[in-house]
Specification:
- With 92 residues, the chain is an alpha+beta fold.
- It has helices spanning 3-13, 25-35, 57-68, and strands spanning 18-22, 45-49.
- It contains 3 helices and 2 strands.
- It has a two-stranded parallel ribbon with strand order 1-2.
- Strand 1, helix 2 (25-35) and strand 2 (45-49) form a beta-alpha-beta unit.
């Protein structure tokens, strides 16, 4: 809503593609539409409605990135979730 959206808007304005991920598609579309006019030439805002706490979330995110035809260069993870083990022990 706040920090993540501001970071995404800054990257988009700087010419970087962004993939906005959150649970609610309507809110994501609204956020993307609001920041698209300030996008640098060629930069795009994609959206993915996804609950990142779902067991298949990593696979769904991976597929969504692949569908854009682009690579993920940077992750801004500011979702308020907790994992059951240290990050370095995660399988993906």
């Amino acid at each position: 809503h706040g920090i993540g959206r501001a970071i995404a808007a800054r990257f988009l304005a700087g010419g970087r593609d962004v993939l906005l991920v959150a649970r609610h598609a309507e809110a994501l579309e609204h956020a993307a539409a609001a920041m698209r006019p300030a996008a640098s030439s060629g930069a795009e805002a994609f959206v993915l409605a996804l609950d990142v706490t779902a067991p298949d979330a990593v696979d769904a995110l991976d597929a969504a990135i692949a569908a854009t035809g682009r690579n993920a260069d940077l992750l801004v993870n500011n979702a308020g979730i907790g994992l059951g083990r240290p990050f370095v022990e995660q399988s993906r």
